[in-house]
Amino acid sequence: MDTAVAEAVDRIGSGTTGTGVVVTGGARGLGRGIAQVLAAQGLNVVVVDLSSVAQDVATELGEGHAAVVGDVCDADVVERACRLAAELGGGLRAAVFNAGVAAPGETIGYDLADWDKVLGVNLRGVFVGAQAARPHLSAGGSMVMLSSITASQGFAARASYCASKAGVDGLVRSLAMEWGPAGIRVNAVAPGTITTEMQQAMIASGRASTDAYLERIPLGRVGDPADIGEAVAFLISPRAGYISGVVLPVDGGWAGGGLPATAPT
Q1: How many contiguous H segments (helices) and E segments (strands) does the chain have?
Q2: What is the pLDDT at residue 7?
Q3: Helices 159-179, 125-133: inter-axial angle, 10-degree rounding
Q4: Do 37 and 15 meet the contact criterion of CB atoms below 8 Å apart?
Q5: Do 44 and 20 form a contact (C-beta atoms < 8 A)?
Q6: Is the pTM of the predicted complex or chain greater than 0.85?
Q7: Could you give the C-alpha distances from 212 to 159, 173, 224, 258, in angstroms and in order?
Q8: Measuring CA to CA, which residue among 73, 71, 85 is closest to residue 141?
Q9: Phi, psi (5° rounding) for residue 109?
Q10: Helical (H) or strand (E) element with 88
């Protein structure tokens, strides 16, 4: 590697863009878990959420963290959060687009208002957020989007959610190509079954079953929000400085499922 290339790699992978990070949908569930992991690693986190609970989360994280209450589909809200994170951390290290909603239901007769809501938050919100965050990121910065195992696996009565997350995967690859020359990395994490309020509500509704999920997870356990937080922390770190355009499954092995260990060989 010649000197010029080595210097470029050092610059892009050094993490000198600051310690500010924006996490959307950070008031609960995966977003809250991600924020907690990043804060514990010394990053300055700005939690964005429609719920005022975001302020409580920022307070729990302690000094050097903040919250912006507002709609993640509003570019001005995300832009304000990015500015605040850059001020707190001496620059914006990363934007993590986690906010999402689900509205399961059979496709025949599915309410188009629900379709628009799910696609609006889960996909349009990520696109708008990326547009707003990009001007605040310099070489070495990154974005991480929350995809899902449902983007690559068929889940019945989840058409809107599956479509929205598959769209996220496509967006990741496109933006990685477009912004890579500027030293900006774009990746996604695709969670499997994680213990969150959303997942518990799905189980309570009868549309999900922990036992049914465990049958498909080789590691034999449901994930924790911290599992996702650790994956995000890696992807925004200099250790992942040569990783871009990737959708990383964090699902206990579900997506790679073939013949289970208990099956006859």
Answers
A1: 10, 7
A2: 42
A3: 20
A4: no
A5: yes
A6: yes
A7: 19, 32, 17, 16
A8: 85
A9: 85, 5
A10: helix 75-89
Active site residues: 161
State the pLDDT at residue 134.
Answer: 98
Contact of 118 with 67, CB cutoff 8 Å = no
Please, which pLDDT band fits residue 212 given cuts at 50, 70 and 90?
confident
Tokens of 156: 């019945």
**CB-based burial label for 120 (10 Å; 0-12, 13-18, 19+):** middle
Strand order in the sheet with 92-97: 66-69, 44-49, 20-24, 92-97, 142-146, 185-191, 247-250
pLDDT of residue 216: 87
Cβ(219)–Cβ(257) below 8 Å: no
